[in-house]
Design brief:
The chain is mostly helical. It contains 11 helices and no strands. The radius of gyration is 20 Å and the shape is globular.
Amino acid sequence: MDWQAFWLTIRLAVFVSAILIVIGIPIAYWIAYSAWRWKFLAEAVVALPIVIPPTVLGFYVLLALGPRSFLGRWWQLLTGHTLAFTFEGLVIGSILYSLPFAVQPFASSFAAVDQKLLAAAATLGASKTRIFVSVILPLSLSGLITGAALSFAHTMGEFGVVLMVGGNIPGVTRTVSIEIYDQVQAANYAAANHTALVLVMIAFAVLSLVYAVHRGAWNLWPWK
């Protein structure tokens, strides 16, 4: 197993999950509580990466990060190189690809909070910020954990987007999924199997965490 690719993938998944928590919570809050009649269009945009092929998303992200785009030119002036085929480019592509896996659980958990509790807090003089921090967030913890965990697992296993945006540069953009692809191409099925099993075990652990959170930790222990 290529441990350099493994740790790069872990680092990518951690970065993406952390950023999605920061940007996903405001988006999810707006989706859950906005009264805008055309809100469904924004929800469709957020969910789009679920249904479009990863290579299609990766292609458009590659164009957006390339030297002909405003962002690509700006980054090149700032750093001397474009965002395409860099770790930073992988982070941007992965954020877009995993966005719905964070926002949708966040929004569902926010919307599930009892409106009577929010009305009671407002009646007591709490501001919207105080209500969000003291009422909505604590009651939505399971949804936040679910979104963060799914974002992490989804980023760990993505292939099409990272290949289109980052290519296959060892130590820079070569992730575990690309390593598995290379091993299969080289007919090294034993090594591909070992690497794939690691991803399966990580995915199983993450999903177990998600279901444990939704069941309630006390239900996991029969003596409680």
